[in-house]
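> call design_seq(struct)
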């Protein structure tokens, strides 16, 4: 599996009541007013933002002094800025060195031939297992003497409940960001499909899947059409079949065109995980009779291996840098399991997130959270809460460095790699995008060397998304370039 799966796939301060923009707070002046306020007002008057619901807050990172405020207590749909709260909560609860463990057991120890009858795998809720990690797990089993599974590979994903998609997400598509959630998942419950058109109209189209597992089988209905054809489109449909999952690919590509690689999600993440593990066992010379699907592990099963995944700090980095929804929802349910709510559910996980944030000092009472990734339009969060969480995280010795480093860097990586070309490296922030919703919250390095913390939420915009992003980025860029006298 290629490295692209790694991509496809930090003092508590409760700020009190914020003013309307440009208004003074007794004993806590709005610095930079009126010039800074005027420039930030102008940034929010960008044509693409007109008619939108806007809420914003900017504070000095060191003192908490308010630099700018515009309806900072207004709770709007935050999209993926919810991930800030999930990331802070899970790092605070578990610590950046925590590792999720996947356990492998068998009906007995391997015999003289290195064989067992049944191999059991118990999912530990690791949301960032990939094919590479399962190859390592399989290699560790072989080094321990395993050579053959005579009957079946059985997986136990009962740590989480069987609700794969959050009910508030609405219709679920095959796109990778709508991946199902389970107690044992691999590759974020997604796969890559490479589609290669023929050289001439009517030639066969090649469709290959990565990873190439028995549990996924292609039904290829893609056509090669003439150059200059008006429409070029691919559609994916997933269908359950007996013992495997069909991936129906249809549409058309122009003759001689470049190959297309798309990422799509599976319907059954547990069966998919079992199929990938079987592939990696066999790649390591361990014969497996069949991937028997899900089941329970008998009490007398013998432990063969406890495989620990990557540190949580690395998991959160993948989660934040690339806005990985599947990781976020897995982390939420993992917090529920940590609290003893097994099988873990979304409500129990969200309750655990809120409890952890409240324990840290974030004022969560006025907000609404229903998921951990921000896919739901039912979430409502204010800039004040996001700024509180960001400031607390930056000052947290135990997990702050890992959290801050997890955020995308302007014009450098993650979801900001192609944004902020004029302020490269001066912004670390989490993006958020849904239909008619955009958000940006994080840290800005100002021209005087001080750091500002900001949150900007925009709902109901009418323009094109790219233009709205330019307007939002312009707000943050004003903070990187404007210095209006000493800060508090």
């Amino acid at each position: 599996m290629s490295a692209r799966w790694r991509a496809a796939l930090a003092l508590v301060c409760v700020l009190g009541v914020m003013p309307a923009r440009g208004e003074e707070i007794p004993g806590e002046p709005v610095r930079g007013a009126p010039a800074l306020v005027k420039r930030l007002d102008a940034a929010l008057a960008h044509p693409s933002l007109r008619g939108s619901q806007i809420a914003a807050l900017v504070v000095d990172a060191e003192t908490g002094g308010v630099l700018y405020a515009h309806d900072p207590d207004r709770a709007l749909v935050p999209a993926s800025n919810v991930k800030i709260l999930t990331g802070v909560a899970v790092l605070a609860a578990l610590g950046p060195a925590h590792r999720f463990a996947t356990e492998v057991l068998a009906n007995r120890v391997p015999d003289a031939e290195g064989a067992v009858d049944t191999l059991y795998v118990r999912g530990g809720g690791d949301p960032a297992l990939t094919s590479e990690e399962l190859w390592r797990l399989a290699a560790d089993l072989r080094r321990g003497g395993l050579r053959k599974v005579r009957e079946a590979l059985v997986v136990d994903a009962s740590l989480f409940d069987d609700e794969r998609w959050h009910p508030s997400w609405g219709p679920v598509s095959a796109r990778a960001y709508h991946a199902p959630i389970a107690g044992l998942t691999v590759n974020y419950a997604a796969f890559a499909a490479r589609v290669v058109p023929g050289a001439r109209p009517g030639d066969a189209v090649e469709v290959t899947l990565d990873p190439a597992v028995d549990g996924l089988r292609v039904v290829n209905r893609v056509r090669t059409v003439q150059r200059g054809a008006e429409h070029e489109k691919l559609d994916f449909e997933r269908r359950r079949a007996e013992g495997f999952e069909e991936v129906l690919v249809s549409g058309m590509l122009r003759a001689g065109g470049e190959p297309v690689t798309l990422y799509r999600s599976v319907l059954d993440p547990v069966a998919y995980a079992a199929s990938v593990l079987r592939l990696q066992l066999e790649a390591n010379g361990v014969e497996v009779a069949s991937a028997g699907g899900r089941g329970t592990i008998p009490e007398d099963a013998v432990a063969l291996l406890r495989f620990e995944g990557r540190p949580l700090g690395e998991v959160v980095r993948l989660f934040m840098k690339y806005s990985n929804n599947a990781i976020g929802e897995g982390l939420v349910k993992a917090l529920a399991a940590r609290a003893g709510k097994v099988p873990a559910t979304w409500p129990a996980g969200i309750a655990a997130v809120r409890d952890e944030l409240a324990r840290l000092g974030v004022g969560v009472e006025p907000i609404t959270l229903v998921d951990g990734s921000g896919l739901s339009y039912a979430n409502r969060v204010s800039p004040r809460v996001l700024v509180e969480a960001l400031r607390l995280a930056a000052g947290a010795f135990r997990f702050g460095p890992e959290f801050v480093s997890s955020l995308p860097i302007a014009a450098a990586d993650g979801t900001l790699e192609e944004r902020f070309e004029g302020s490269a490296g001066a912004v670390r922030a989490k993006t958020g995008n849904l239909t008619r919703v955009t958000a940006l919250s994080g840290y800005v390095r100002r021209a005087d060397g001080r750091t500002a913390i900001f949150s900007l939420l925009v709902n109901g915009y009418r323009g094109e998304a790219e233009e709205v992003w330019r307007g939002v980025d312009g707000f943050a860029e004003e903070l990187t370039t404007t210095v209006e006298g000493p800060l508090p």
